[in-house]
Amino acid sequence: MCLEEPRILQQRTELERGPSVKRGAMDTKEITFWLKLSRRNIRILLVFALISVGMAWAADSAQYPDNFRRWVHVGTGVILPGGVFPENEQGMHHIFANQKAVDGYVSGNFPDGAVIVYELREAQQKNGVIIEGERRRVDVMIKDASLYKSTGGWKFERFMGNQQLQDAVHDSGSSCFQCHINAKAHGFVFSQNR
Ligand code: HEC
């Protein structure tokens, strides 16, 4: 009895070890399966991360409107000292629209890709003549309904002087939009194409 018992035990442990080895093999398969799955998941996550970084970049990076002076001229206004407008609004301003924005001026519904520029320059008065002087700033509105939902689908930008790289708008355009909301009936655009 005393001698037999260890043998039985040994057999038993061998029996137990058998399937346990098999189970081990299954575990490795399972592990590689999960590893593959998680590797794929990581790849998918990376792609999503890159897309969102790209979208954030598109939403945040400054987009200066090149050659806007060759677009359609919507209108010009002159704000002189002595009125209700503060000094930083004074001067001669011109509004320019790219082709998509021109379509929007007609329908009041501005499509994605519409860009409108408000260029403010010094107003110089000489001998009863008012002419435009140095550029004071360039304000820009860029339409992308899905990217700029909180500001009526418009990205608002401001470039001081002849600056083209640094956007002076730091609140995602909410302060611009607070005033432009008054032009809601015309797609948040005040000016009208004549
Ligand atoms: C207090 C009100 C007010 C604020 C704040 C304001 N705007 Fe405007 N904006 C106007 C008005 C009014 C016009 C129309 C001027 C005209 O027709 O001569 C205008 C015109 C424009 C235009 C030309 C398109 C249009 O709506 O006629 C652009 C582009 C523009 N603004 C950008 C900006 C940006 C960028 C900011 C913020 C940095 C801003 N605005 C802040 C009142 C405002």
Short description:
The chain is 38% helix and 25% strand. By secondary structure, it is an alpha+beta fold. The protein has two domains: 61 residues; 119 residues, 3-Layer(bba) Sandwich (Chalcone isomerase), CATH 3.50.70.20.
Q: How many strand units? A: 5
Give the structural class. Answer: alpha+beta
Compute the separation of the termini in Å: 112 Å
What's the tally of helices?
3
Number of domains: 2
What percentage of residues falls in helices of 4 or more residues? Answer: 25-40%
Bound molecules: heme C
CATH superfamily of the largest domain: Cytochrome P460
Indicate the overall shape: elongated
Supply the key terms.
single chain, 194 residues, alpha+beta, Chalcone isomerase, 3 helices, 38% helix, binds heme C
Descriptive report:
The chain is of the alpha+beta class and 194 residues long. The chain has two domains: 1-61; 68-186, Cytochrome P460 (Chalcone isomerase, 3-Layer(bba) Sandwich). It is 38% helix and 25% strand. It has three helices and five strands. It has a five-stranded antiparallel β-sheet with strand order 1-2-3-4-5. β3 and β4 (129-143) form a beta hairpin. The longest helix is centred in the first third of the chain and has 57 residues, at 4-60. The protein starts with a helix and ends in a 14-residue tail after the last helix. Residues 12-22 have low confidence and may be disordered. Heme C (HEC) binds next to β3, β4, β5 and α3.
